[in-house]
Amino acid sequence: MQFQAEALGVPVERPDIVETTALGAAGLAGIAGGVWKDADAFLSSRRFTRFVPGDGAAAARQGHVGWRRAVRAALAWARDSAGAEHA
């Protein structure tokens, strides 16, 4: 997550409970059952870890350049492989 914050240049938050699908269903049931008054009350009970861009932002951007290059190479390889099967 730190890498994402640095690559994007913005803070990134990750919920402490990562099973968000199940938690969302439980939250809706809790709101319907009166455990929480509303969605804001449910969300206020959540905890997040916050990652902020730091000194690694330049390295993250450079890594992104390399990643994009690798994706282009993989796509070119996949296109060449698909063409070879039909030859």
How would you characterize the overall build of this protein?
The protein has 87 residues and is mainly α. It has one domain. It is 63% helix and 9% strand. The chain contains 4 helices and 2 strands; from the N terminus they run αβααβα. It has helices at 2-8, 20-32, 39-44, 57-85; strands at 12-15, 48-51. It has a two-stranded antiparallel sheet with strand order 1-2. Helix 1 (2-8) crosses helix 4 (57-85). The longest helix has 29 residues, at 57-85.
User: Structural class, from helix and strand content?
Assistant: mainly alpha
Query: Which value, in Å, is the CA radius of gyration?
Result: 21 Å
Q: What assembly state would you assign to the polypeptide chains in this entry?
A: single chain
How many DSSP helices? 4
Order of helices and strands: HEHHEH
Strand order of the largest sheet: 1-2
Shape: elongated
Strand residue content = 5-15%
* Distance from first to last alpha carbon: 44 Å
